[in-house]
Structure formats: C-alpha cells, structure tokens
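Task 17 of the worksheet. Students: predict the tertiary structure of the chain below and write it out as structure tokens. Keep your answer in the requested format; marks are given for formatting as well as content.
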Amino acid sequence: MLTPQDFTAALASFATGVAVVTVRDGRDDLGSTITAFTSVSMDPPMVLISVAAASYLAEVLHRQPRWAVTVLAAAQRALAGRFAAEGRPSARLLLGGQPHHRGPKSDALVIEGGLAAIECETRVRLPAGDHVLFVAEVLGVDYLARQDPLIRVNRRYR
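Model answer:
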C-alpha cells in the first residue's frame, strides 16, 4: 500500500530548481519558495506553478492574476530558506538587504541576483488534490545572470 511517506520520499529523489514566486497583495508583497514550476507551452509562452490549496499564497493568487517568478542562483540558498516559511510572509521583510525591483508587467517584486525573472498572468486555475495549479501566460522575461542554479533534492538545497 502506498503511504504518504513513501510517496514523499520517492518524489524527494527528483532534483528540481528552486524559485521564489512573488505577488502584490494590496499594499504589501507576498513571496514564497517553490519547486513545482515548469514550462507548459512555447506558443503562447506559458508556465505552471503548483501551490498548496490551503496556503495564503493560493488565496492571494486567486485574487491577483499577475505575479513573478525569480529562479534562484546557488548563492541564494539562505533566501530560499527565508521564503519557505509558512504563513503570510512579507516579501519586503524577507528580502532584507537583497536588491530587488518591481517587474514592469506584473508589479510584483523581482529578486536581483537570480538566474531569471518571469512575469506572469494566470489564465487557468485547476484544483489538484491538496494543491492548486496556476497556469499562466508569460508577459515578459529577464535573463539576469549566468550562474549555477540552486536545486533541491532529498529535502536539501544544493
């Protein structure tokens, strides 16, 4: 019989990139570390993120269709840990002294020093078990730096 622990352990063996999704929530900015991020289509350019349905991030993404994803560099490991916190993390507080700017198309925070920034607008929301899949059209990209990526495998950043 498949147990949640076996399922989680098996999926943890798959190396994934690490990114931070940011979205403007009224006067504040929300940010969260994600590893469930992938391209969906080249024409039109579309991506997908998977977010826990019970999370505050999912709640905000239902209200705010525009958001950004910053693909993190290996040197941004501590930043990934700060944005992985549960609850309602204020992105500006979690950034600390990390340079950032507002994306011109999404108005979401873009973290400087990452590998790429992708500004998005949600087109489809799909419930998927205890998660929600947000499929979004890409509004713009910035290829920010050529560095080693931050990855996560076996529940550790590398």
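Marker's comment: The chain has one domain: 17-157. The longest helix spans residues 4-12.
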